[in-house]
Amino acid sequence: MTSETIGQTIVVKTEEAPAAGPAAGKGEWKCPMGDHHIHRDDVRKVWKECQEESFWYRALPLSLGSMAVTGGLIYNGVWKSSKRFGPFPKLAVAGILGFAVGKASYAGTCRSKFQELGLGDGKGFGPWSEGGRIGPGRGHSRCHYVCEECKKKIQAAPAEEVKS
Question: Cβ-count burial of 143 within 10 angstroms (0-12 exposed, 13-18 middle, 19+ buried)?
Fold first, then answer.
């Protein structure tokens, strides 16, 4: 068994048979430095906390407030109620819009809670927020570990430029 240090990564090579796992033999490679272990219970707790707080502290107050303002405007005659349905359509739309705005306004607070947990290193939450392609072929954008195949490509690239 040999070991070598590359930057902050320690690579250990063994002569033992490869472990028979789900990724063994399929050519799948998982970055050893990109596996930030976060417990699912912690994620569920933060998600539930975000849902409850966004409802009680933002969505419900804005919904009730917008319905109260709309009801006041209808009562004072600034807005007219529908002849067929009365004030209910306007009140319902005000309530739904207030709820949606309240939920959306809590997204930044929720994002910061997930970042404190260790999710979402950058500006957004997932690969769609980083720009570029999604899926295989993205390179090592979040992983600073350099595999042996990539090292060979990097070393071969300057040699090809000199030959040209």
Answer: middle
**Helix or strand run (H / E) with residue 9:** strand 9-13
| Tokens found for residue 152 | 């060979």
> Nearest to residue 13, comparing CAs of 25, 1, 5?
1
The amino acid occupying position 8 is Q
Residue 125's CB is within 10 A of a number of other CB atoms, namely 15
Cβ-Cβ contacts under 8 Å for 16 (sequence gap 6 or more) = none
Residue pLDDT, tens place only, 127-143 = 445 444 444 444 445 55
pTM (predicted TM-score): 0.53
CB neighbourhood size of 73 (10 A): 15
How far apart CA 145 and CA 150 sit, in angstroms, is 10
Kindly tell me the burial class for residue 160, based on how many C-beta atoms sit within 10 Å of its own C-beta (0-12, 13-18, 19 or more): exposed
Quick check: 54 and 110 in contact, CB under 8 A? yes
